[in-house]
Specification:
single chain, about 270 residues, alpha/beta, Purple Acid Phosphatase, chain A, domain 2, 2 domains, six-stranded mixed sheet, five-stranded mixed sheet, about 35% helix
Length: about 270
């Protein structure tokens, strides 16, 4: 793995605890091909690491928009059974909407606006032809509940909204300025963009998040944004944190071929 992570890396003020390596993975959105390659590299890196604590944090939005939400959840279910890893699967707003639909089929038309058709298709379920078909949405919710493996339902139901490791706070969307990180509302952790993205004040920890797609991983000293719009750009990003070092890893795929690129992340 030295060819990926042996190069010089930038140092930053924020740190993870000694003896710990943390990977943070951005929004996957049904790109099972990209996350498969990314997980392979992360596993290989951590297998070579001397760290006593090896953490992989997924920042949410595993489903919708991309072609294989079911395949993504299959991979995550498999990963959490690895006893050598500490896996944190944070909830994203798309998982929140999927669970809401299972409990209340009336959510279906609004969920359509977030790319649910691709998720349903990955489970072999079709939505009703008309957005206003209440009975049709009820039937669709029932069909999804039947098609959803128990392991997937359990994984979705058990996702926390945030994780804190050393000087880093991990969540899906971000946090509201002026509010302590441990007092943030669920809505903000899942949905916020502004004023979080551009507010100049730093939080008590560096916030690592997804939710807002950007062309490249963003690091401005107060936050690290890891969503590079995988479903549309064919680029799935992750950040490796060890001590005060940060490295970006990206899986880039098109036409069935997935490549890996790495670079230091200043900030």
């Amino acid at each position: 793995m030295s060819r990926f992570f042996g190069r010089r890396r930038e140092q930053n003020a924020s740190c993870v605890p000694p003896g710990c390596v943390v990977w943070a993975v951005g929004d996957i959105h049904g790109r099972a091909d990209l996350v498969d390659r990314l997980i392979q590299v992360i596993r290989a890196d951590l297998a070579c690491s001397d760290a006593e604590r090896r953490v992989v944090v997924f920042l949410g939005d595993y489903v919708d928009r991309g072609p294989d939400s079911r395949g993504v959840l299959d991979q995550l279910v498999n990963l959490v059974t690895d006893p050598s890893l500490e896996v944190r699967l944070l909830q994203g707003n798309h998982e929140e909407r999927m669970l809401a639909f299972l409990d209340d089929p009336g959510v279906g038309p609004a969920w359509c606006d977030y790319g649910e058709r691709e998720t349903l298709a990955s489970y072999g379920v079709n939505p009703p032809a008309m957005r206003t078909d209440k009975n049709g949405w009820a039937q669709t919710a029932a069909a999804l509940a039947e098609a959803l493996p128990a392991t997937h339902r359990a994984l979705l139901a058990e996702q926390p909204l945030w994780a804190s490791i050393g000087d880093y706070f991990f969540c899906h969307a971000g946090a509201r300025p002026g509010v302590a990180l441990n007092a943030q509302s669920g809505d903000d952790l899942l949905w916020i963009r502004e004023p979080f993205l551009t507010h100049p004040a730093a939080f008590e920890q560096t916030v690592v998040h997804g939710h807002t797609p950007t062309e490249a991983v963003v690091s401005d000293g107060r936050r690290i944004g890891v969503d590079t719009g995988a479903y549309a750009t064919n680029v799935l990003s992750a950040v490796r944190l060890e001590g005060s070092h940060r490295v970006v890893l990206q899986a880039r795929g098109r036409g069935g071929v997935v490549s890996i690129e790495t670079a230091p992340l200043p900030g």
